[in-house]
User: Fold this.
Amino acid sequence: SKYTKNDIISMIEENNVRFIRLQFTDIFGTLKNVAITTSQIEKALDNKCMFDGSSIEGFVRIEESDMYLRPDFDSFVIFPWHTQHGRVARLICDIYTPDGNPFEGDPRYVLKRALKEAADMGYTFNVGPECEFFLFNTDEFGHPTTITHDTAGYFDLGPSDLGESARRDICLNLEEMGFEIEASHHEVAIAQHEIDFKYSEALSAADNILTFKMVVKSCADSHGLCATFMPKPVYGRDGSGMHTNMSLFKNGENVFYDPKSESGLSQIAYHFIAGIMKHIKGMCALTNPLVNSYKRLVPGYEAPCNIAWTLSNRSALIRVPATRGLGTRVELRNPDSACNPYLELAVLLAAGLDGIKNNLTPPDAVTTNIYDIDEQERKAAGIDALPSDLKNAIDEMKADPFIREVLGDHVFNKYVEAKEKEWYEYSTTVTQWELDQYLNKF
Ligand code: ADP
Ligand code: MG
Ligand code: MG
Ligand code: MG
Ligand code: MG
Assistant:
């Protein structure tokens, strides 16, 4: 690994670090942390820090609640901002049980297990996410709203882009934390932004997504704005996605690239696409985890609703951008940033590998804009639809035994249980829409 225990201890001393956050996530991808002072760092680096797992959603029962945190030394980062009490650093941790085994409910472990399978086949899984988000105003109490004074559109420049200074601040902070920012721009909708950072091996990509969201939220806050990754915050405007760009490398070469084939894509790339398409319905409850996620996956906003792939247009589920060579990649367009990136990448990788192992062939690439075809034409063309809501997605997840296998029983059961509860609460709530439509009329 990059750092030794002594490296970390001396970086802490040299930079006046006073607090260290030991970070991990619950099964929904919510960042959790146990903060320690510098006096405890040796203990932490020796894997002796414990926490009570029973208080974390989707973890364990009270009787078996003691969990150990094992810091990943390479994840050591000192946050760029200075506080009154010195600086703060973080270590991302794996969770272990008292008997020294990885905890089955740790999402990072679920991804590591899937990555092990890829490594056994000689593959490195590279991932580049495109996280979109909104910057909204806060109200007089500092609470988030969906109000904005921004009037800019896609790739517009200031001064109409009020979020620009917040976005610059976000980029600079991320760079100080070791991110390579490839691009940042205003997105299609007013107040919507995208910042792209360079792809990396999947485990660090998942770690980066969580760090990214945290930095975006805290920078927005210091500019008096509120950042949200909610998939569809405003009806009638574009939602925020997290396009997930994926490739497999072997010995430093991109195995999705084949200069000898007409498309420039290898057979492995086709198998990978086929594997994703085979399992996509079962994976949707993970890639698009909220009731609200499905309000983004509607026609008309460059968000997919059908299971098709393409070499060109942006209405399909999977797009293969024109770049070849090292940049050859498969872009999955349905995921949103509300997902737990560890679980998302675990199932996507496993699905792709399933395609490779079983030599699956994808259907022909579509060449038309599939928003333009109606239901009957779609069915006649053999193009299936994505689940229309969270309930359908949960049912599809339960119907694909492969998903349970990748997640393991613990995560699968806890996840389904929580999502079914979420759906029940939502579907029995009387909404403002219903009152507006029915109260006076009936
Ligand atoms: P788009 O054209 O869809 O807007 P972007 O330029 O916004 O795409 O983002 C492309 C993402 O794909 C970046 O995060 C980039 O690092 C990533 N990427 C580039 N090459 C690869 C690759 N070989 N494997 C995975 N991701 C890659
Ligand atoms: Mg983009
Ligand atoms: Mg781009
Ligand atoms: Mg975008
Ligand atoms: Mg994209």
The first helix runs from residue 5 to 14. The mean pLDDT is 92. The first strand starts at residue 17 and ends at 25.
